[in-house]
Amino acid sequence: MGRPPCCDKSNVKRGLWTPEEDAKILAYVSNHGIGNWTSVPKKAGLNRCGKSCRLRWTNYLRPDLKHERFAPEEEELIIKLHKAIGSRWSLIAKKLPGRTDNDVKNYWNTKLRKMLQKMGIDPVTHKPFSQIFSDFGNISGISNTGNLNKSLNSSLMSKPDHQFSSAILTTTEPSCFKKTMEEQVQEYNPTVTHPTSWDFLAQFPVHDTKQSPLFFNEVSSCPSSSPSSSSTSTFTQPYSCQKSQAPLITPTCTFTWSEFLLSDPVFSAEFQHQQEQYDFDEMLSPTNSSTMAMAHNDLSSCNITSTGSDDDWYLNRSVGRSTYGHGTVNNGLEENNNAADHAAYYSSSASSFVDGILDRDRELHSQFPPLLDPSFDYY
DNA sequence: AAAATCTCCAACCGCACCCGT
DNA sequence: CACGGGTGCGGTTGGAGATTT
């Protein structure tokens, strides 16, 4: 039994607002102020749902809103905050005067996300696709099975190369991203001699948490919407996804957001030296609201159980989902972090947990030699 | 010029939380 | 403590306008 609708949807107008309707809202708010939106339609003479009125006001009519395009500084701030706290649009919007969460969300989805993808950055994890791909390949052994070349060939036959030359940096793009996806793949995977394609990457849904949550979504995975999360700083589960529950990996140590943020050279500089400007403590203070408190937990005190660094976390997630892959010995992180920009932006380290998994992988191979046959297929 | 496709964003939806009763 | 109305939030959709074919 769900919650009853806030109004009779069949009898209220929906869709785009007219100037007349806007004027009624503005007139009502100027006379009565904001409050009890469910009664606003009736009092203002509108045939709209109260929720719709509130949305129209907060997202469009509020006098303090900016309607011009986002400035490069705003773009950079959104990216940094998204890396730090994920798709907490309302929190991000609070740091952008005159912008609503809807503005920020739309701008992210239409511009910034695509821009990052073009530059070879996974917009969910903020890691280079090449690193993700390399990790995945090295752990699951894709490159050993022959499927890599097969996939590359098929994808390259279907898509022209010019797709990969689109990552031309503009002056509005943040300076912290320098390399195209193609460059990164060449750099991180010397064995890959051809440009790759989105189709090819799409076959390995490492950044699609809906289809296959191979990699931990550091933000949405925090049980921030859970009532209990606001009262505890330690998760009882290593990770939990609201919509896609992933199998658990036994935790061996803890990871804190504050350490993660402060270890990030880009974010920590802002965080430490301009704390007043960002002022997460104030913004995320538990005294403000439960949402703030939950986000505070995410940022400052929420402990995410992990086997080491955040990179290990991502890595372990992929390991956990690739039990039967053909693992290579190296985890690929150390040797693949030779790009100065990304080495500065993304730190990594080896993991005994990963080694353990790889040992087990090798053990499986020794016990089941057919697995090493490139022609072996599960289907 | 027309049709097809793409981009963008306003608006909607459903869920969860807050808070008064 | 339970309930229910109000609100906040993030994800998604629909359609208008722009662009390409």
From TrEMBL:
Main subcellular localisation: nucleus
Subcellular location: Nucleus
Pfam (any one): Myb_DNA-binding
GO MF terms held by the record: transcription cis-regulatory region binding
Keyword list, A-Z: DNA-binding, Nucleus, Repeat, Transcription, Transcription regulation
Xref: InterPro entries: Homeodomain-like_sf, Myb_dom, Myb_TF_plants, SANT/Myb
Domain HTH myb-type: start-end pairs: 9-65, 66-116
Entry keyword annotation includes Plastid: no
Entry GO terms, CC: nucleus
CDD domains: SANT (cd00167)
Domain Myb-like intervals: 9-61, 62-112
Domain of life where this protein originates: Eukaryota
SMART domains: SANT (SM00717)
Record-given protein name: Transcription factor MYB35 isoform X1
Organism this protein belongs to: Populus alba x Populus x berolinensis
